[in-house]
Design a protein that fits this description.
Strand order of the largest sheet: 1-4
Shape: globular
Number of domains: 1
Helix content: over 70%
Number of strands: 4
Radius of gyration: 19 Å
Low-confidence stretches: none
Order of helices and strands: HHHHEEEHHEHH
């Protein structure tokens, strides 16, 4: 057996990390789904949502290749922006609409759980990475046909389509979050304005995602986005 080169060894380690993280993510979400839908311990599983969210964020960062200052700068910008917009929303109603957070997501800052900022990072990073992966696939298809993917079109697609993807995730999650007590809307109605704000803020953060120079080849982010979307779709359907 030929000895692996240093690059091949790093690629092998990265694939191993991705497989381990994906297996853990699937396991936790499947157990959570079963616990919420089919056991008498529904409340216990709901109360431990914060643990699951923290673990997924840790796995996401663990799988990030070549972590650098730019990457952690992006994490910080998204976290602060997410918290700031939510604080404005909660306290003024000028963003998202009129809503309040429950106690499930843990310790709050001015009415907003700190974990919400972390969730903004996870959603934006996963959405942006999904678009990068999709563009890489299109680029390979175009190259086979001796065509070129327009850089301007790729940039616009990353921002607009990525924001639509993030907003779609919020749309899937909203009714589930309300039923699980994450937050509540005034008159129990999710306003269209919420999704409009999600789209605009996501587009701005994806522009930041594009600006920051770090390795965006985090395949686990794609897996995590699919796993979480299917998790909330299942709860949306059967809860």
């Amino acid at each position: 057996m030929a000895k692996k080169t240093p690059i091949e060894h790093l690629q092998f380690l990265q694939r191993t990390k991705q497989n381990i993280a994906t297996a853990i993510a699937i396991l936790f979400h499947v157990i959570g789904l079963i616990g919420i839908l089919f056991t008498p311990y529904k409340d216990w599983f709901i109360q431990n949502t914060s643990l699951n969210l923290c673990l997924m964020a840790v796995l996401l960062i663990w799988n990030q290749p070549q972590k650098n200052i730019s990457f952690f700068g992006f994490v910080t910008v998204v976290f602060i922006t997410g918290m700031l917009t939510e604080v404005i929303g909660i306290n003024t109603g000028r963003l998202f609409g009129n809503y309040t957070y429950g106690t499930v997501l843990g310790i709050k800052f001015r009415g907003v759980p700190w974990l919400v900022g972390l969730n903004w990072f996870v959603v934006i990073f996963c959405s942006g990475t999904c678009m990068i992966k999709l563009q890489q696939w299109f680029k390979r298809k175009f190259e086979k046909e001796e065509q070129e993917l327009s850089p301007r079109m790729a940039a616009v697609s990353l921002i607009i389509d990525g924001a639509l993807l993030a907003t779609f995730f919020d749309w899937v999650m909203e009714p589930v979050a309300v039923k699980l007590g994450f937050w509540q809307w005034q008159n129990s109605v999710v306003p269209f304005y919420n999704y409009l704000c999600w789209f605009i803020i996501s587009a701005i953060l994806l522009l930041v995602y594009r600006w920051f120079t770090f390795n965006k080849d985090n395949h686990f982010a794609v897996h995590l986005f699919i796993i979480q979307t299917l998790f909330f779709l299942a709860l949306r359907t059967y809860l």
